[in-house]
Amino acid sequence: MFDQWPSLVVAVPLIAAGICAIIRYEFFCWLVSIITSLVSLSGSIFLYLTVKASGDISYKLGGWAPPVGIEYRVDIFACYLLILISLVAIAVLIYGRKLINKEIASHLRGWFYSMYLLCMCGLMGIVITGDAFNAFVFMEISSLSMYTLIALGRDKRALLASYQYLILGTLGATMYVIGVGLLFNVTGTLNLIDLSIKIQPILDTPVIKVAMSFIFAGLSIKIALFPLHFWLPNAYAFAPSVVTTFLAATATKVSIYLLMRYFYTVFGFSFGMSSELIIGIILSCSILAIFVGSFSAIFENNLKRLLAFSSVAQIGYITLGIAIANNAGLTGSMVHIFNHALMKASLFMILGAIAFQIHKDQLTLTDLSGLGKQMPFSMAAMTIAGLSLLGVPGTVGFVTKWYLIQGAMQNGWWWLVVLILVSSLLVLIYLGKIIETVYFKPASNTGIEMNELPGSTFIIILLAVSSCIYLGFDTSLTLGIAEEAVNALVPEG
Predict the structure, then answer these.
(1) Residue 346 sits in which domain range?
(2) Rounded distance, CA 23 to CA 83, Å?
């Protein structure tokens, strides 16, 4: 059975999604989802330990050897994302059961859990597959379930947000599959490892350049990389709180994973388009994402949209590490995949819990007025997560920026070091707005009794926020795995 874990971590959520679609009893579906997430997390950890001890795993589906058959290929980088997805999935389910019951109509809750598990299946499938077209199939599975999850929001604008995401997501997937089709046309293979070998003699041909352009553009939409980010703020703002938390922590990270796979595994940054041109494009988009996202967050009053624009900026930090294109920069990018998921999940969970208490779907800055006195522990947790987003020493956010700055210095890009530091000041501005409102303005919810967040909700938030501090000091786990992942992706690095 242990030999089947590469298949089971994908198949178990898929089967569980079907069960929840048939038996739509709320508690049963929640329990099935919890067990499924635990199984996937256990399998992901087992795969990590196996890869660490014995090397990469090549799993042949149906017994057909690659490149003819579909291969699931597991290395440290894949394990890193598998653990992240399944860990977030179970944390959100434990945290959000009461919110799900409040925000989603009773007759739709069974469908919610089914789509949640289907989304999880698709995301894990993208990570583990070694086949370019199979990645497209899993991309569509995760995307279609995401559109449904977003549309379950009670605000009517959730339908519009879902529709916008559907249109742009379909465009992104179409561009991706066109690029894959072009690669298949000239190489005759869809296996990523086989592709990396067969395109070496033809890297400088126009068709490879065009194929890479399509793949990069398609995945950039999925990542929400500036200027292709405009689907993200509404999708995060109007989706149910648990959906926003799960998507913010996982969906864009998986697309970044796939982009890294193409850049470093398939093309290796040495294809016909000069690496300087590619670095220039990604670098420009990343810097613009950081500053446009941060400026947008400064002037935003809706808190979910504020954090969504902040996510646009944080995605810019991740892709910035790709553009720096050295070991330190890529390590900063890799560790920020986990760090940002941790920080942003914490902040969205806190907002969702506050919205639950004051019976509002959309929180504004005014709704946080005076909560520092009414909910001191919860607001302290939000402040710590925010400081981590800022990159204060002793938090996980500092680890990311330290490595990005190191990477920029190794390239002699002192101007980029200055930009990274200046961008942190922008985070301080919108974070300062929130802290000022929480601690220095009179309470606005005077007619509502505000208490600390309830039981399991607060425990999950406390664990997440505590991790922002603990992993900022003890970096052996996240940074250690990130460095291993970089070495798996770029062995010569």
Answers:
(1) 274-493
(2) 28
